[in-house]
Amino acid sequence: MLWCGPRFVGACRRRYGPAFTLRIASMGTVVYLADPADIKAVFAGDPRIYHAGEANSMLKGLLGDTSVLVIDDDVHRDRRRLMLAPFARDAVARQAPLIAEIAAENIASWPVGTTFPVAPRMSQITLEVILRTVIGASDPARLAALREVMPRLLSVGPWQTLALSNPKLLARRPWRGLREAIAEADRLLYAEITERRADPDLGNRTDALAMLIRAAGSDVAAGAAAGSDVAAGAATGSDVAAGAAPMTDRELRDQLMTLLVAGHDTTATGLSWALERLTRHPEILARAVQAARDGDDDYLDAVAKETLRIRPVVFDVGRILKAPVELAGHLLPAGIMVVPAMVVVHASDAVYPQADRFDPDRMAGVTHSPSEYLPFGGGNRRCLGATFALVEFRVVLREVLRRVELDTTELPAERRRLKHVIFVPHRGARIRIRSRRVPPTPE
Ligand code: HEM
Description:
Largest sheet: 5 strands, mixed
Number of helices: 18
Distance between the termini: 43 Å
Low-confidence stretches: 217-240
Order of helices and strands: HEEHEHHHHEHHHHHHHHHHEEEEHHEEEE
Strand content: 5-15%
Mean pLDDT: 89
Bound molecules: protoporphyrin IX containing FE
Oligomer: single chain
Radius of gyration: 21 Å
Number of domains: 1
Structural class: alpha+beta
């Protein structure tokens, strides 16, 4: 994920057209694709030829080498299939009240009358959501320890990223702090896994960890082919997967770490960008406040989708070719990486007229093609937590807009700053709350 900055890639697209090659030290040859037809070919291509796990291998040091993000081929298909159920629409819907409660509690501590960066607050909310809904942690001491250690793992700079992509370095002195943080997180995650396996109530639990433990070894078909967007959205919530071997503790640890890392700062950053955009667009903010008050989820969803279009959090996704492929009118050799240039497509006036305008209406009631709207990547690797992220987005946004009155600002837009593999607002999305509101009582 993330190979070059948006401005540079945009400039290359203007200069060289919709397919261009970069040769990057330490990464080799990378072919960017900005034509939706070529992107469609990649997402629909044979997963044995388009390796995403290999392209994400720099995350192995943190996520572990059995993480669903870094594996490919049949083993990826099987592991991903086992992980569908907790992220199916009905399972996610069951988590909405807890997400709202977590958000409301956090918002109650936001300062009134002073400007502050909202990104760290959003991170606290989304971390708590993952800890309680995905991991299912409830022991207060362990929750406190996880709250403390996870941000240390996610706030890594380029120096530490180097060690994560080359785990042998972790044994060396300069990286000892990072190694200790990973060891501490592992200790806490393994404790959760042991406790969950022994839980007499395992069968009734709704956290993703319990579902992953239950979701193996059965002959009953999951009813969803692993990977397709439709399947991910339409999975029935049945937590059994056809014939797959159960996950070992080590695999469970790797998947939990993956869900924590992939699902926490990404959603927090999307939410921060939403407030950064809304506070610079008074009319849209007023409509969003009304929508939150009226329970109009469609408009809040349109705000979420438009935010992720104009400020995609993960900048682009890569696939390493395992065989020669004809793409964009060229025969591309095995071994190179192809990158659907999400940020370029999202900024294309041909696809989105006046693309640099923040305009949620363009998303309302519209389903864009997966090769034109791709904040969650695509094909058999499309974000496993996309439904979860969009529900969380809607619920947290609704709580914010119902509970506080935001000041608008005429300050220039915040720039994008690279944090690990995502783009965050460079000043942390600074906002100012004018006053607190009394939220409408639920019917
Ligand atoms: C706004 C929030 C989010 C964004 C923008 C986002 C974006 C992405 C992207 C771009 C990918 C790579 C897709 C590809 O290679 O085609 C991905 C993969 C993934 N995401 Fe997300 N994500 C978000 C939230 C979440 C959440 C909440 C979870 C889970 C709790 C999650 C779990 C995953 C997993 C497990 C994968 C790996 C899927 C695979 O390789 O099969 N993500 N995400």
